[in-house]
Each structure stands twice: as structure tokens, then as C-alpha cells.
């Protein structure tokens, strides 16, 4: 029998009620903020202790149309980090194919779609670069907090409520499921259980935009202590590539041109 939208809503309501009851009567340890904070801190300490990290990821951003329809846009990419000042990341989706390189002195954004790139020269750490991108170029990378020098400090800032929901399985890996709230967002994180508390899933839900759009990050192929080639972070312009100003770069976002993603997507500052 075909499931109608109305019956689906009834089913969702029943599941929501069941989940509420489960949390209310479940073991107290599943919702203790102390547990959530300790697990998040353990993840932060583990990440901070890793000098080199490589990973791949899938991400999705939801936007709300003027007709109040929720639309999701998806992308995938890879990242290579060598602390404190080297980074290479790629992101490819239906509307952009972009590469980011930072060799400790020069930051490059390369738009493969039209073979253009922009560069900025300054010696800084990856943390300082992320802050600069937000303040000067209004480029948001919600998942960047997870790879900061001290993730706990940035993630826990402004948190009003924290819960350890319990265990879950992400990509076949058992994880601790944590949920946090601040003034503007609700966010959840799934951290690998055991001696290597790796972040496996990260979801940010905006509370300041109607219909509560979300940003979701799934982390895969996490590796540490990787061997890195000497030229891994150097950018060599391909044949015919044109250097432009940052303001001239086009179509490097995860959503189609013209969609006000910054105002609509779920973000955690």
C-alpha cells in the first residue's frame, strides 16, 4: 500500500513521541552534559595531538526557497592537513569544482570550472587563515572547527545545553552521539568510540531561519601520521589558467549561483 504524506506525518509524529519517551525514561547517563563535554574534550585532545591528517568527506547544505521549500545540495571532497600552516582541500559538487591550497605563505583558491585562481600572500597558521576567510572574504566552512588547533574551545563556546544521547553507528563504526544547543543553532556530533575519538558526522541546524535548514558533514577515510610529499601544498597553475582577484571568483560555493546560501544555510559561528 502506498504511504501518503498524511500517514507519513503521523508515523513521524509517533516516532518523535517514542523518542521523547525513550530519552525521558532511559539511563540518566545518556543525557548528562558532563559526559558530552568529556567526550567532546577527548576528541579535541586527540585531534590536537595529530600533526598530519588526511580524510575524505561528503557534505550537504539545505536552503529554503521563497516558497518555503527545503532543497539540499551535496558535495564531496578531500583534505590534507600538516600543522600548523599547511592545508590542501578539494570540493566538487553539482555547481562547483574547487581546490584550496595553503603552503604557509600563499593561499590559493582554484576554480577548475573556468580555470581561474586567486591568491593571497601572508604567513599564518591554518587557524588564522580560517578566521581571515570568514572576516575578509565571508567564506564559511562550518566543518573547519573540527580541525582547529583546539577544537573544544571553539565548539563549546556559547553552548547552553549538552547531552550524551547514546551510541550510534556511522559508516559501520560505533560512535558516541552528542547533542548541543546554543542561541542560534542546535548541533550534533558523532564521535568514534574507543581510543581514537575521531569525528565521523557533524550536523548543524539553524534556529534563526524558518524551516531550520541543516549543514551535514560525513567524514571518511580518516588517517593520521601520513607521509606527505614535499610539494603537496604547492599550487602550480595549469595551462591557460587566469589569475583574478578574489572578488572575481565565481561559482565556488556548494549551491547554484544566485541562491543566498549564507543567509539560508545552517551555520555555527
SSE topology:
Elements: H1 5-25, H2 33-48, E1 52-64, E2 70-82, E3 86-93, E4 97-102, E5 106-111, E6 116-121, H3 126-136, H4 151-156, E7 161-170, E8 173-181, E9 185-192, E10 199-206, E11 214-224, E12 242-243, H5 261-264
Parallel strand pairs: 6-12
Antiparallel strand pairs: 1-2, 1-11, 2-3, 3-4, 4-5, 5-6, 7-8, 8-9, 9-10, 10-11
Proportion of residues in extended strands: 35-45%
Spatial strand order of the main sheet:
7-8-9-10-11-1-2-3-4-5-6-12
Rounded mean pLDDT is 85
Low-confidence spans: 8-12, 14-31, 261-267
Distance between the termini: 45 Å
SS-derived structural category: alpha+beta
Number of helices: 5
Overall body shape: globular
Give, in order, the helices and strands: HHEEEEEEHHEEEEEEH
Work out the helicity level.
10-25%
Radius of gyration: 20 Å
Report the sheet with the most strands, covering strand number, pairing sense and barrel closure.
12 strands, mixed
Annotation, overall tally of beta strands: 12
